[in-house]
Task: structure prediction
Amino acid sequence: MDITGIAKNFTEFYYSQFALGRPNLAPLYRPHSMLTWEGKQFQGGDNIVEHLAALPFEKVAHKISTFDAQPSSLDMSTLLINVTGLLRVDGDQELQFSQVFVLAKEGDSFYVLNDMFRLNLG
Result:
């Protein structure tokens, strides 16, 4: 299993869908998925996507600086991905962010089991 390739493909897909329309992310989450966004927790794909869609900006662009990935289970059924980068919302200044995903294997693909996002301010 090419973990780095999976992580690269996932991050490219995730952030492109985020930019095109946050409701496009719904297929990536399941009812038991968890999101922590700036300290606020949400469970379930519907609640997660509802929160993401309600964020107070129209346009967003992510510029990935780094991503690291490793298996997070012995049977390779879950992957841990750590992403850092810059984001620009509605054409404003760029802000540093970090995001951590745990992907869980489902058939021949993966879904987002855990997702944690923070702006790196300060």
